[in-house]
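Anyone have tokens for DUF3298 domain-containing protein? Sequence:
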Amino acid sequence: MMRRAIYLFPASVRTTSGVKWGYINNQGRFFIPPQFDGAENFQPNGLAVVQVNNRSGLMNVFGQWVVRPKYEMISSFSEGRAQVIDQGKFKVIDERGNEITTKSYEYIGSYTEGRAQAADTREGKYLYGYLDLQGREIIPVQYESATDFTSGRATVQKPDEEYVLIDSMGKILQTYKYPFVGSLGDGLLPFKQTSDGKYGYIDQTGTVVISPQYTWAQPFQHGRAIVNISNDYKNKYGLIDKNGNYLIEPKYNDILFVSSDRVAVGKPKDEERPYMGSNYSLADTAGHFLTGFVFREISEYVHEYASANTDQNTFFINRTGQVARKLPILPGSGTLAFVGDLIRADVDQRVSYYNYAGQLVWRQNSVVQIHQGLLVREGKYKPNKDYLVYYPQIEGMQSRSAQAKVNQRLKELSQVVPITPNTQLDYSYTGDFSIFFSKKNLLEFELDGYHFPFGAAHGMPSRVFAPVDLVTGEVYQLRDLFIPGSDYVKVISDIIANQIKNDPQYSYVFPNTYKGIKVDQPFYVKDEALYIYFLPYEIAPFAAGFPTFKIPFKEIGSMIDMNGAFWRSFH
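Reply: yep, here.
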């Protein structure tokens, strides 16, 4: 497919029906109107992934569908191919949107050197092989582990626990009698001589080049490798050359390559709690430190610049680590990136665009007009570098006391709570909102949050819906929808129990965990139905998110208080 210059940029607008995404030109004007639930950057092949109703599709720069939204996921293209997830299984598509695989796999990786890892379950075991650019299984699924191809070589593990080096057609070039052999890099491979031993490096013939001495060893790149010698939870990362000489001593919390000859070297923010993260210095791969440990993050270099940030600002640095004063310097934490002829800023959970002179081209609106002089204004609360909440505030209500009361309640529900500034929290929290439903006098907000304890495997998402009466300021609860004294808890509980029992889409629910709903069960409403939802882990695995059940109003109409304020606010 012909390559096109990138000249459209994903941009979002906050509306009365949620946040919608479209594409602007380099003047900040919408070329493809905001209509999608999500939109990603245009890729060099002139295609962009967009999301509609939890499905992904492909669009060209003229706003035409190449693939209508039907997949659960579409990856970025690599070597003219992208991976898609369809009904939980992986397939490969080309740049015309054609599925080139004749079967689905449990996993397919990105293409490198004309090959992509493919994995499937065979006789209860997860095994790997490789696909070619035509989607054919060129190397059969048979290995217990596999790496991407580098210089025409890949390391795979046979079921008998032997590791072998293969070429792109699957021919075995070398066999290694070790319990672990990693990816090829610069002609060397990390390995372990014993399963409980340490890591070293061998060459392609299996000859030991650097004896085992590390508790972790990454593949070489550009003549350097990152290793760790720690024997406990306190990391000791260093940088070695191909002779095993230390160029950066092994005493740091982490080290990251940011270019072929630059690394970000991290010292722990808290020596006794290294999992809290690092402060970074920029160093060259000869071991010379170019800056102090002043950065919160340093990204990979592009066009001689890398995005970096501190607790206060986000900016570009040059190859010596100096701040690029002629490019944008923005308050907040995030990243900057050169995209086409603009600079994209992802800072404090918001996207904006600037030209190379640092002038603002576009940012998302912070005010949404509702009706009759009413509007919702976005508030921002960032008392600490690790705590950030965007929350809604209503303006224009006839009753100022009702407006003040509901706005205070919206702050509380959004987790705008006292947080100690200028101290290191042991977690991070982000919160955001959208207008989920709007009709007559009812405005329903969705308030989402994510609490991440530092060092944890994952954080915990939260979700609260706030149905607000724009006349009275009442934030309705579930019981407000029903006739007083009606047994709505039992009726709804039975309806959901029946759905779990008979609807295959709820097969993920843990056996014997659903015990019915609570009086104050989390819920939301739309025009035609009541929706009941549960929190992660409450009745289903974490991966299931927020299990949600739809109860059409016609099924529970006899219990609904048709004269009640809640119902009449939107009917």
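The two ends are 51 Å apart (CA to CA).
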